[in-house]
Specification:
- This is Histidine kinase.
- One of its GO terms (molecular function) is kinase activity.
- It holds the Pfam family OEP.
- The chain is an alpha+beta fold and 447 residues long.
- It has a single domain, classed as Up-down Bundle (Outer membrane efflux proteins (OEP)).
- Helix content is 61%, strand content 12%.
């Protein structure tokens, strides 16, 4: 089947549905609902969103109210110390009521608080794109594992077919040996060939079990509780039209690039925070309240208390801490810039690798199909000629080996096209912008 590239074509959010496999769709839906890594990423995103909401309050005044009741009794000696006559009777106990309202506000003259909020918003965006990347990786890994399972099943079937043919051939040789028609050496050769084919089967079966266990992990269940349908190459249909995006679209579509961009934004905001910490900090505080010895007098004019305080704090000597923190923030900004560049280059490399692989996969599969057909015909012809005495046993053994290798290569080539198709969709971003199963960030996209 030929695949056609469609430059500029959009990518569906459920791109895996193009394989037209209900079993694959059901497995991915179960994984999206129950995968613990996704749940952890979702919880982390929620954490950063709540932290962002908390940081919004930094730009607003802080208002607090209080009500205090104080009880006490002064000693007669303390009264005598003030110049009044001492009394032998204890002074009466008293209560003092205080109701107050306090307002404080830190003037963000240098933008430190705003840059802090900007950093929190960028951190939220980073976690959102990390969640999108986790979704994309999970779906692509499930498709790859499903294809791997189907490939292993096909390899096991091909190996079992070869083993069956070799057992039949061994039975014929053993009958001929009993009649004196062949030498013992021929029987031993066929037994050795059969044993080699049987030895190739357990590793394939072990790999198949591991592939099933891997799928169980993606779904979020233990292997013993995994009962999803088996995958075969016949149940997975190769998408015939593949999208190709221009570089500018790849930058916007790849969640890892967007996450790296958000990290760069965080690092830039942290430099602004470090700069602001080296400059004067101005704060305003206002307190108003009333104080009385009984609640009935608490709101009388003479019980009014108030104060207004303005303060300026300028760091003078911090042992080089603020300067070092600013230099560290600048270094982190440089590192984030380099990491962003590396991520973009890696993304372009992923797309180029996937396109190249798909281009050569078709050629490889075509050659593998031709080789498998030729090997099957050669084996059938050689076996027929051997029965008629026209070919030695060694020719049959060689034809059997060639057929087994060709059949396995054909299966692997078919699986490679399916896997590399998934790799292309992953490299192009996987259409996450069309999905609605990830909640939009609380404060929107940072311009």
């Amino acid at each position: 089947m030929a695949q056609v590239f469609a430059p500029g074509a959009d990518i569906a959010g459920d791109w895996w549905s193009l394989y037209h496999s209900p079993e694959l769709d059901a497995l991915i839906n179960a994984a999206l609902a129950h995968n613990p890594n996704l749940q952890a990423a979702q919880a982390t995103l929620l954490q950063t969103e709540e932290n962002e909401r908390a940081d919004v309050g930094v730009l607003m005044p802080s208002v607090s109210a209080g009500f205090k009741v104080q009880g006490g009794q002064n000693s007669t000696d303390s009264v005598a110390g003030t110049g009044f006559a001492a009394s032998t009777k204890p002074l009466p106990a008293y209560r003092l009521y205080n109701a107050s309202l306090s307002v404080s506000y830190a003037l963000d003259i240098w933008g430190g608080a705003r840059r802090g909020l900007e950093s929190a918003q960028a951190q939220t965006q980073y976690q959102r794109y990390e969640l999108e990347a986790a979704y994309l990786s999970l779906t692509a890994n499930i498709v790859t594992a499903a294809v791997q399972e189907a490939s292993l099943r096909a390899q096991i079937d091909a190996t079992n077919q070869v083993i069956g043919d070799e057992r039949q051939q061994l039975g014929i040789l053993q009958s001929q040996l009993s009649l004196g028609g062949v030498a013992q050496a021929s029987v031993l050769q066929e037994q050795a060939t059969l044993a080699a084919s049987e030895a190739a089967l357990p590793p394939l079966q072990a790999a198949l079990a591991q592939a099933r266990n891997q799928l169980a992990g993606y779904v979020g269940v233990v292997p013993g509780d995994f009962h999803e349908a088996d995958f075969t190459l016949d149940s997975l249909h190769l998408p015939d039209t593949l999208p190709v995006s221009v570089p500018s679209e790849i930058v916007a579509q790849r969640p890892d690039i967007q996450a790296a961009s958000a990290q760069l934004h965080v690092a830039s905001a942290n430099v602004g925070i470090a700069d602001a910490q080296m400059l004067p900090q101005i704060s305003l505080t206002a307190d108003i309240g009333r104080e009385a010895i009984n609640t009935g007098d608490l709101f009388m004019p003479q019980t009014l208390l108030w104060s207004l305080v303005a303060g300026v704090t300028q760091p003078i000597f911090e042992g080089g801490q603020l300067s070092a923190k600013r230099k560290a923030a600048l270094a982190a900004l440089q590192a984030s810039g380099a990491q962003y560049q590396a991520t973009v280059i890696g993304a372009f490399q992923n797309v180029a690798d996937a396109l190249s692989a798909l281009q050569y996969d078709a050629l490889t599969l075509s050659a593998a199909d031709t080789a498998a057909d030729a090997a099957a015909q050669s084996l059938a012809l050689t076996q027929a000629q051997y029965r008629l005495g026209g070919q030695p046993l060694s020719a049959v053994l060689i034809a059997q080996t060639n057929y087994q290798n060709a059949a396995i290569a054909q299966v692997k080539a078919s699986a490679a096209r399916l896997v590399d198709t998934a790799a292309l969709y992953q490299a192009l971003g996987g259409g996450w912008w069309h999905r609605s199963d990830v909640a939009v960030s609380c404060c929107g996209v940072i311009p």
